[in-house]
């Protein structure tokens, strides 16, 4: 059989969705290896995988880029600073991969969509590669609600079509401007903005596998090599028994990033608790490295833990307050739990729009507000029938089989099966 290498940053939301894919490949007889940041190598090995890191990724460099201490948003200066940091390691990581794969060439590379060096190195060595991603709406388009513009929902009619066309034009212009600003850096690492056919070079020309529900997305045009293979996530961390407060109980989480927002998360949750009598709140601080059954904070209404494993504990909650990250969105839908989404940065506003549009929950601007308290009361008191429908959608995806079909097609030089 074939040798597959999975390349991903050491972030749970990007790395852990690959684990079921790797297991399916291994069960099908393929050799499987992971390359990631040093922080997750031992976790992967403990889960039974061959795993290693690269010299360029030592010292937590990827965590320093992603875990910003200030909000990035669409601020061009913040984005530029983040890109400068990324380019500083991108070329070195690409060179490490080329050296490694010349010595031991894989048959196929499976790269997370922000693991850009994986695709660059595979292209240099003419190795077929697949992109995996949990945010399909990040892909550039020309129709349907554009992304990264504050969380737009569908707007019917000519006015909506005009809004969408203008929005996509502005998104392309923004990306082109950034590419022009960093043209020298891009040339240094061998990265171009688009291929000759107009497709974005950040993503595989062979297959782009969206690890999410097609049903969650708004109607729009998609790249021909895109396939939705369903939300999937694994948690290789050991079980963590937690003593949760009495119901009704609400989980509050901002995922594993957003360090700048977590500074006040417990205080903001306490302010919300004062507006929501009778409700217990559990705050997850997203610090898996320091996971413990001992609370970081505990008072009459609010308990905070360093880490709360979603797969293990979401069924124990009545509702979830989250930031709109891809991981918790998929986990909440799979568990059929209503969500109050308080987006902070990046693609979270777009996920909030999808949650609200499909009646899977509500969205609010701030956590410690009367509006958030009123919407939380609605979450806990109303029925949300769409949740059962979407949970059933999620359960119907045979993610492993769909992935293996894309692997066979990429190895044979064919587009992924429909």
What is the strand arrangement across the widest sheet?
3-2-1-4-5-6-7
- Return the CATH topology of the largest domain: Rossmann fold
Fraction of residues in helices? 40-55%
Total domains: 2
- What's the CATH class label of the largest domain? Alpha Beta
Brief summary:
With 418 residues, the chain is of the alpha/beta class. The protein has helices at residues 12-15, 18-27, 41-46, 61-66, 76-103, 116-124, 157-181, 183-189, 259-262, 265-275, 310-313, 326-334, 348-357, 370-381, 385-396, 399-411, and strands spanning 3-7, 31-35, 50-52, 108-112, 129-133, 207-210, 226-228, 249-253, 280-284, 297-298, 302-305, 319-322, 339-341, 361-363. The chain has 2 domains: 3-232 and 397-411, Rossmann fold; 249-395, 3-Layer(aba) Sandwich (Rossmann fold).
Kindly list the characteristics that best describe this protein.
single chain, 418 residues, alpha/beta, Rossmann fold, 2 domains, 16 helices, globular
Task: Please tell me about this protein's structure.
The protein has helices spanning 12-15, 18-27, 41-46, 61-66, 76-103, 116-124, 157-181, 183-189, 259-262, 265-275, 310-313, 326-334, 348-357, 370-381, 385-396, 399-411, and strands at residues 3-7, 31-35, 50-52, 108-112, 129-133, 207-210, 226-228, 249-253, 280-284, 297-298, 302-305, 319-322, 339-341, 361-363. The protein has 418 residues and is α/β, with parallel strands linked by helices. The protein folds into two domains: 3-232 and 397-411, Glycogen Phosphorylase B (Rossmann fold), CATH 3.40.50.2000; 249-395, Glycogen Phosphorylase B (Rossmann fold, 3-Layer(aba) Sandwich), CATH 3.40.50. It has a seven-stranded parallel beta sheet with strand order 3-2-1-4-5-6-7, sandwiched between helices. Helix 2 (18-27) packs across helix 16, helix 5 (76-103) crosses helix 6 (116-124) and helix 5 packs parallel to helix 8. The longest helix is centred in the first third of the chain and has 28 residues, at 76-103. The chain starts with a strand and ends in a 7-residue tail after the last helix. The model has no long low-confidence stretch (mean pLDDT 92).
